[in-house]
Design a protein that fits this description.
By secondary structure, this protein is an alpha/beta fold. The protein contains 19 helices and 13 strands. It is 44% helix and 14% strand. It starts with 5 loop residues before the first helix and ends with a strand. It binds S-adenosylmethionine (SAM).
């Protein structure tokens, strides 16, 4: 049973009302996310488990919980991305739960169930989960740490949880808008009245007033949904990276990875790393993972609206996977290489075939965006990736193919040595594994 106080119960009731009036997201049943490669990729257990363990898991039979499932759009992504898994969705809003149920049925999924429930009451479900998706919910909870603990209580020891919080730095102007609307009573009104009042109020401001200049766009005039999800969102909160890590610590959870880890890569922020003053470069490279993420948000705060991450229970015995850059040649040779299942799609096959036949490059970022910068693959590598569509291969087998394709060194015209081929292929495969397009696994 939940331990909510009267004030917390009142806030919860307001949030329930808001999402009963406007279930989120407001996307018609007919609009399917099942062809959206990037979204399916982010909702795939394969992605999260590989980030944690460097192992490739099968979603078959896994238990997945979607906390604050809303109208079920993401529950549908979870079902689509994880064939054979069981999906359980919960939400405080009965209207949302009703829509979520209908959405999954509409797409023929009979492996899903939904419950109207407060996150704090999750242990009442008496189920344990391999994966918990809690997307765009934590920042609405009166006490997010209580929510984190409740989810931790139903997460299996080996499980992984995706949670996110609004970035206090990126969202600050919306938080200011919400505070203003709260203080002048606009948030106490019904949805329609609050939208009308807020639009009238914004129209009365001079254009150079900070809040108007930074947050008011044409879509705020045309879309009620945008206003409700931003300026007029009730209970919205923001954290910085250190605050998020402190909360995980209090809830007894360990950080695994950012969901879009490449969007948090400090190295991507520099035009030329050689130009970074040595002392600063050393301080950045020696910083802990949490500190590096914080440095990133201090430098580039408008880039990521969400602090979106995977976390887990602390391992009984910490067996950290060996970083790819430390793999020996033997480890590489015996590694099993797999093309991530979510990018094994026709479009990629076509693009790779074109790169091979025309000896040009293709951009993997067009298929599944990782950081906004192109991820170019040349004809040789494209040929190897095409072979991976037939199934996993050992690195050694790919190396043999690579040597067949390029038997001579194009600069010296001497036969390509094993060392040359191995060095080039390791660089290419490592780059694609770090970005998450390929998965490289050591034998059990
Ligand atoms: C912004 S929506 C996100 C919906 C969905 N997760 C998505 O990303 O599309 C937030 C959802 O969290 C639900 N919610 C808020 N507080 C909750 C609580 N204490 N327990 C369960 N659900 C809650 C709301 O009803 C709403 O449907």
């Amino acid at each position: 049973m939940s331990t909510t106080t009267a004030a917390a119960a009142e806030t919860l009731e307001k949030i329930r009302q808001q999402f009963n009036e406007a279930p989120y997201p407001n996307i018609p049943l007919e609009q399917s996310p099942l062809e959206k490669t990037s979204d399916l990729y982010n909702h795939s257990l394969v992605t999260a488990y590989y980030r944690k363990t460097q192992k490739i898991v099968s979603p078959e039979g896994k238990m997945i919980l979607d906390v604050g499932c809303g109208s079920g759009y993401k529950s549908l992504m979870l079902a689509g991305a994880n064939p054979g898994a069981r999906i359980v969705g919960i939400d405080i809003s009965d209207t949302s739960v009703d829509l979520a149920r209908k959405r999954l049925v509409h797409y023929g999924f009979d492996n899903a169930e939904f419950h109207v429930m407060n996150v704090e009451d999750l242990p009442d479900l008496t189920m344990q989960f391999d994966y918990i998706n809690c997307d765009e919910v934590l920042y609405l909870l009166t006490d997010p740490i209580v929510g984190l603990k409740a989810m931790g209580a139903v997460l299996k020891d080996t499980g992984i949880m995706r949670v996110n919080f609004h970035s206090a730095l990126q969202r600050r102007f919306y938080h200011q808008a919400q505070q203003f609307a709260e203080r002048v009573g606009i948030l106490n009104e019904s949805k329609e009245t609050s939208i009308t009042l807020f639009r009238e109020f914004m129209a009365s401001l001079r254009p150079n007033v900070t809040l108007k200049a930074r947050t008011w766009t044409a879509s705020c005039e045309s879309s009620d949904d945008i206003l409700m999800a931003n300026h007029l969102l009730r209970g919205d909160k923001g954290w910085t990276i250190p605050q998020f890590f402190e909360a995980m610590d209090k809830a007894g959870l360990d950080f695994v990875s950012m969901v879009q880890w490449e969007r948090w890569n400090l190295l991507n922020l520099f035009a030329d790393l050689e130009e970074v003053p040595l002392g600063v470069a050393m301080a950045m490279s020696e910083a802990s993972p949490a500190e590096q993420l914080h440095l990133y948000e201090l430098l580039n705060s408008t880039f990521n609206r969400l602090l979106d991450l995977w976390c887990c229970h602390p391992a009984a015995e910490a067996v950290e996977p060996v970083a790819l850059e430390d793999w020996t040649a033997t480890q590489w040779h015996q590694a099993r290489i797999v093309l991530h299942p979510q990018i094994q799609i026709e479009q990629l096959q076509e693009n790779l075939t074109e790169a091979v036949t025309t000896m040009t490059v293709t951009d993997l970022n067009q298929i599944c965006p990782k950081s906004g910068t192109p991820v170019l693959v040349n004809g040789m590598l494209a040929s190897c990736l095409l072979t991976l569509f037939k199934g996993p291969m050992t690195f050694s087998a790919i190396l043999a193919q690579w040597q067949q394709i390029q038997p001579i060194n194009l600069l010296t015209l001497a036969p390509t040595t094993l060392e040359e081929a191995e060095g080039s292929l390791i660089t290419e495969v490592q780059r694609l594994v770090e970005l998450g397009y390929l998965l490289a696994e050591q034998p059990a």
